[in-house]
Design goal:
GO terms for molecular function: hydroxyacylglutathione hydrolase activity. This is Hydroxyacylglutathione hydrolase. Its EC number is 3.1.2.6. By secondary structure, the protein is α+β, with helices and mostly antiparallel strands. The chain contains nine helices and 16 strands. It has three domains: 58 residues, no CATH class; 223 residues, Ribonuclease Z/Hydroxyacylglutathione hydrolase-like (Metallo-beta-lactamase, Chain A, 4-Layer Sandwich), CATH 3.60.15.10; 52 residues. A hairpin with a 4-residue loop joins β6 and β7.
């Protein structure tokens, strides 16, 4: 298999270059890829500070590993880690659903190169067009690969609060993930705002296959969206559910408790693809560990406030008994305790 790429280099450091995928020109033979380029010359969109080089056809690049967790439903389990050069930003789960007419991608990884690998995984399974890339929330490990699918013609779909959240944080996300991953590997990465937003709920028909999208109030973040495949009873929860990876609170801890309880009460779904871990968990049992952690976080934060502990004192104590149950605990639990304390001290 062959694909079209453009060599993209940093203007500030021309020695740092990366072949960036141009989706839509995949072919089994080199000549066919080159003929497609000649027939439909691409107009690549790259971020500022990137110099465009030659467009060529090359053997297909790295393909993301996916697991078929239900008929036509594929999940990619990312690494349980913070973004780093060795993982290239592949630290948030993703997946896709194949319908009769098109494919929907759910989340897109933490860099353009992750999105490219996920796009290739779709192409290894089907030639159907990718009609939608659905972003479950604002965090960079789930959104920064979306431009690959937009270039392939997909509409970007997200929570009604996603545009504002990404607008406010775009440069911070790009700076931080670019630093953690490395400038060269991060070439081609951009932040895209949604074309379609979900205020409460929405149905997407992929051709005899309906996805149910639901926007949730502030919980893990202020922009959480779930995607349910009615056909197989599979729910993509994004980071409303964590597994193995320590939960990360960036919204309302009380809201998250409420939303999780509502999610666990929804009928019709027997398994989920969480935002981290898995890649598939039985439902609603798969939410038990997170529910337990949130209960401890709330209870112990309230106890710390009642004792008169300062924020700094509370952060050192709250929920530390949960450490053995989760990975990356020292990185995320202090942040969670800080957010919970700030929320609950005003009860």
């Amino acid at each position: 298999m062959f694909e079209a790429v453009i060599m993209a280099c940093l203007v500030a450091d021309p020695a740092l270059c990366r072949p960036v995928l141009l989706p839509g020109y995949e072919a089994s033979a080199l000549a066919a890829c080159e003929a497609a380029l000649a027939d439909r010359p691409p107009v690549p969109t790259l971020a500022e500070g990137i110099e465009r080089g030659a467009i060529t056809c090359q053997p297909i690049g790295p393909v993301a590993r996916v697991e078929e967790v239900a008929a036509g439903v594929f999940a990619h389990r990312a690494v349980i880690s913070d973004a780093a050069p060795e993982n290239g930003g592949d630290v948030g789960n993703a997946g896709f659903v194949i319908g009769g007419d098109s494919v929907a991608m759910i989340d897109a990884g933490g860099a353009a190169q992750v999105g490219e690998a996920l796009y290739r995984a779709i192409r290894a399974k089907t030639d159907l067009p990718v009609s939608h890339v659905i972003l479950t929330h604002m965090h960079p490990d789930h959104v920064l690969g979306a431009s690959v699918f937009a270039a392939a013609g997909a509409e970007v779909v997200g929570h009604a609060g996603l545009s504002r959240a990404l607008t406010d944080r775009a440069q911070t996300y790009l700076d931080n993930f670019g630093r953690l991953i490395g400038k060269q590997a991060f070439i081609g990465t951009r932040v895209l705002l949604p074309d379609v937003t979900v205020e409460s709920s929405m149905s997407l028909d992929l051709g005899g296959r309906v996805l149910e999208l639901r926007a949730w109030p502030s919980s893990h973040t202020g922009s959480d969206l779930t995607v349910g495949d009615v056909t197989t009873g599979t729910l993509f929860t994004g980071d409303l559910v964590f597994h193995v990876h320590t939960p990360a609170l960036d919204g309302s801890v009380l809201g998250w408790q409420s939303v999780l309880a509502d999610l666990r009460g929804i009928e019709g779904y027997t398994q989920i693809v969480p935002g981290h871990g898995g890649p598939v968990l039985d439902w609603p049992d798969g939410g038990g560990a997170l529910a337990g952690y949130l209960d401890v976080l709330v209870d112990e934060t309230r106890e710390a406030i009642a004792r008169g502990d300062s924020l700094a004192e509370a952060v050192e104590k709250v929920a530390t008994g949960e450490m053995s149950k989760w990975e990356l605990f020292d990185l995320f639990n202090p942040r969670n305790a800080t957010v919970a304390y700030t929320e609950l001290e005003w009860e």
